[in-house]
TrEMBL record, chains A, B, C, D:
It comes from Limisphaera ngatamarikiensis. GO terms for molecular function: N-acetyl-gamma-glutamyl-phosphate reductase activity; NAD binding; NADP+ binding. It is an enzyme of class 1 (oxidoreductase). CDD domains: AGPR_1_C, AGPR_1_N. This is N-acetyl-gamma-glutamyl-phosphate reductase. The lineage of its organism: Bacteria, Pseudomonadati, Verrucomicrobiota, Verrucomicrobiia, Limisphaerales. It comes from the Bacteria. Catalyzes the NADPH-dependent reduction of N-acetyl-5-glutamyl phosphate to yield N-acetyl-L-glutamate 5-semialdehyde. Residues 8-150 form the Semialdehyde dehydrogenase NAD-binding domain. It is found in: Cytoplasm. Belongs to the NAGSA dehydrogenase family. Type 1 subfamily. Its EC number is 1.2.1.38. Keywords: Amino-acid biosynthesis, Arginine biosynthesis, Cytoplasm, NADP, Oxidoreductase.
């Protein structure tokens, strides 16, 4: 696909927080012509009316939300992003794929390789198991080459991205044990979506800290699938998500046991070097992963508004553990930014186009 | 000590956030006459001028901050609270104790039984090692009887309280393994004190999530001391504190491995019953510890402004772990409320006096 | 009514933010037995389950929400608080009053003396115009004596309280012109109630500042009624309410023109003295109004959690105006605290009972 | 100046919040080579170390803060931005101007035409009165043509921008009276700068609403200067700034009296049309001013992160007034974005370059 001819793109289910970011990024993308955005709720209104933050220039003033219609989208667009609830996304994807369109799905419908795991975690049979084999997990840092030729991209969610990016290189390199990993994540409220529910009201969230989704959060299924692939053996983690009063951002803290000892200063020095080298090899050239040196720890305010995942880590010789912390914008690297990064790979654009 | 004759109380170093809460509680305490509050910074000003939230009635309008002077305080007061930096507190405590006064110290100076551990974690020799043996750790739920006769109370900090209350009963009862415990805590910004430092500015904290104090936070020394006493063997934990944008509150999430298996529904049922019974035995009659039933998880907004520590827990049969979450107000149950609760025991008041 | 025999109290519509505060205050009130709380939504659940902040002790553990039933409440209770939407409240009040019960209404239904004004501002005919003449406007600082014998109290809302308390004494004393008054108020989000609506989600309110209800907010009707009574002539104000990201609190800023000149230092000195004297006469003995001296300006964080309205003011000789600022907790002095203050007057309790 | 040859730009005093935004914008500006940034505090550190949000790519990784040295900057740069305290800025500007450099000053030093007014409001003699006559007030919507040839630009502050943009067209067109204007502004905490002071700590600002700077805020001097020029007569306003807990953003609410009557529906209709036409004429082609139609009111969250000032308004026939509300990002349209917009005019770039 040439950069001269713009890719025609549509977004289905564009009225939530991820949808808003997706539309914003696509409107600013030099290789994209945004041909359609759909929303049952806002059909007939312009992007500018629904998203006053950025909807007042150029195309956004004209473009109107429409009712979702797979057949029409297959005619209009080369690439269709799906920002729909799980279950619904798969049904929408099938006709688009059959029409030869590229589908980039932000739901969980195509992230699992095994339909049985989907059923275990989501409580109903997978709506399109025959499509799973062609889906590529949309984490470019792990699956860049496969994404280049993909027709169906399963863009991962915010928790998986924040957990996989710090852990996969260490597991692949055998630097940490694959069992006993404990993960705590703190999520901003936009992670819950744009839903009018009591528990996400300002007065219920401000000055509130809470854990939720304990002990079996649905995203564990894809997280453990990818960690297991990285480790070469089944990985099961203890994961506790928390809701904290920021609008955007996820901070993830991982505690793991190195395979090497930390009993002497020499061992600490050696492992420090090996972890540094491991991350440098994995991410030294990555535009959207930033590994802090040993003194720094991530802060979500440094990544919110960007497509960057920041990683910091510390050895704890006293307990013989390593602590790794990651920070990302849950709506960008944790959702829409990453989906656009995948599109760039699929369509042959430079990977950072529209994301800097 | 009779409730008819009021106890004369002084607070040294009363101008921080904990000091403010302490003064507020003591002014409202029916058995207390607040005879002196000290602050180098605010000497000469009334409590009402410095703390406009509550300082406009009765005694608060008259009472003026004064320069700290141990001799004078020993004359004026029966009980002296110290809200001073570590190191300074011990020097202040000595003459007061020699004069026969009761000292309730909110610093870390008297929380450790072993001066060598103090030196390891605080980087300097303990300023008054000879006093350590008479100090009682001020966690009433663990040391109620010893507190009744105490002359020197070492009131624990916010992190230790939020970690010890959920863990000690399980360790004492042998329901969880003493190794491999992972603790993550989220602290409101008031935990950093009332210090004019850049990193605690509104614009640096709002919309910010960060880990800090990794891997060897100073409070680990007292936490591990008390956990080890509960377990009957040396306990070392992996602890990561985080700073999150709430004014008050700590949420602590503990992941631990039960000693019993969770492989069958029967085992899960049995352990559920044993943990329920364990917490009921430990806290069923406690006025300031609230154990939620199996469906509830704590939320700091439900405890901020109270002296209550809320505890919730879930078994995770999938990974064979138990997750325990606690929530408290870091300035009340995590500092000043608890110190007043200790005073109530020392002075023979009903334990909840002035705290409901 | 003697303090020995407790007053039996019921709260109708108790599940919102004001209702929550009302139940909390009444549970702690030494002269009250809370006999019933109603909520269609939560009928059958205990107060402790619905309000975990304070619902874990004593009566709150037993008391269950029930369906509202005026006849039953008339049997059970001496005093009934109505925390219902306008229109509904009046219908509920009628049978209670006919049964000889005291009604303290937190809605707008009985605040206006003139049913025609109600219809103008609320868009429908008043549901019980025959009751208006017996209602007493529940601002104790203005109507204390009439409240002592009242059977129907119309407790004012948060905006009116924050505007009337600073302005009425100045108008009564003729110190400011009654025309040209401009009022801006900033309200915390709890002022919008506990409604699951998109615009009050955390992500829509945090980092958001907005005006709303321009130009004819419904509460203007009662505000101007009371200002007109104070001035002895028709007063019309320019009022702009704003929504700002705090949970609780209202800050109101008034700009008005003194009747006396401010052209010389002598005139400024003279007016300063007259305003001080005016406020001292009006509020010097009031337990819940605090007038700051000339240097201080109110801050909502100093009054949130209390029943106090704080007032500060400055002369502006450059423009010949006076600026008056007030701060209150919108759920306490702006709603439930004030309603309890009224009940104390009606029932013969000391006015501060249960409110300190 | 051609766009082929990049303009060499330096920023003096770049370590505050405005400085941070300025450096970010200039690093992304296609016509700019950022040759130097100065900061006494951070001299020697890279931009990437001090501003981790954006400092990790390209030039930001190399560029180091240096000590400010006017002579060196005059050699290195064509355009120098000054983000310095008032008084200091003027001293720095003089040698740069003498060397033929363009100076864009973000302080208040060159905003007033009359040195006597400066002395009245700032309490000391103007440090460089001889330069005042060549300074151009940096509000492009008012002074576009003069800015094109300017050598010394006095970029206005956040309050003036948020007040002048809504008011100047109405005053110029004679649609509102020039006396009796009342202005209330709500400012985010970043407006106070990046200063380690107690009153701007998270715990002092979160859940706090307060007025300050009453009655004679320093910025009134430039606001009234520009309003008077627009009205053709001396304009004095009543202005009350407030501090509210958002990081960024200013919301300004103006109440003014139309010169035409609003007594009949016809008059309301006529004035509505005239105000619409007035704003359309003034801002219809402006890229950074957005006038909402009659139903919309501004919300800071829609403009934060952009260089846009949003304006909404309502007629109030009941009181015969007009209410105008504006919203802007105090660090962008209220400071650094506007300064870059000015630079674009001075240097002959398209006005929106680097700002979309």
């Amino acid at each position: 696909m040439s950069e001269l001819k713009k890719v025609r793109v549509a977004v289905v289910g564009a009225s939530g927080y991820s949808g808003e970011e997706l539309v914003r990024l696509l409107l600013g993308h030099p290789g994209v012509e945004l041909v359609a955005v759909t929303s049952r709720q806002y059909a007939g209104r312009t992007v500018g009316q629904v998203f006053p933050r950025f909807g007042h220039w150029g195309r956004a003033r004209e473009l109107r939300f429409e009712e979702p219609d797979a057949r029409r989208l297959a005619e209009l667009a080369d690439v269709v992003f799906l920002a729909l609830p799980h279950g619904v996304a798969a049904e929408f994807a099938r006709p688009l794929l059959e029409s030869g369109r590229v589908v980039i799905d932000l739901s969980t419908d195509f992230r699992l390789r095994d339909a049985a795991v989907y059923e275990e975690f989501y409580g109903h049979a997978h709506p399109a198991p025959e499509l799973l084999s062609q889906a590529v997990y949309g984490l470019p840092e792990l699956y860049r080459e496969r994404l280049r030729g993909a027709r169906l991209v399963a863009a991962p969610g915010c928790y998986p991205t924040s957990i996989l990016l710090p852990l996969v290189p260490l597991l692949r390199a055998g630097l940490i044990e694959s069992d006993g990993i404990v993960v705590n994540s703190l999520s901003g409220v936009s992670g819950a979506g744009r839903k009018a529910e009591l528990e996400y009201l300002f007065c219920e969230c401000a000055e509130s800290l809470r854990a939720y989704g304990v002990p079996k959060h649905r995203h564990l299924s894809e997280i453990e699938q990818e960690l297991s692939l990285a480790a070469g053996r089944r990985v099961v983690i203890r994961f506790t998500p928390h809701l904290v009063p920021v609008r955007r951002g996820i901070l993830t803290t991982v505690v793991a046991r190195p395979t090497a000892g930390l009993g002497t200063a020499g061992e600490v020095f050696a492992l420090t070097g090996r972890i540094e080298a491991c991350y440098r090899a994995a991410y030294g050239d990555e535009p959207f992963v930033r590994v802090l040196d040993d003194k720094g720890l991530p802060d979500t305010k440094n990544v919110v508004g960007t497509n960057v995942c920041e990683i910091g880590w510390r050895l704890d010789p006293r307990t013989g553990h390593v602590v790794v912390v990651s920070a990302e914008d849950n709506l960008l690297k944790g959702a829409s930014g990453q989906a656009v990064q995948c599109m760039n790979l699929v369509c042959g654009f430079a990977e950072t186009t529209g994301l800097m």
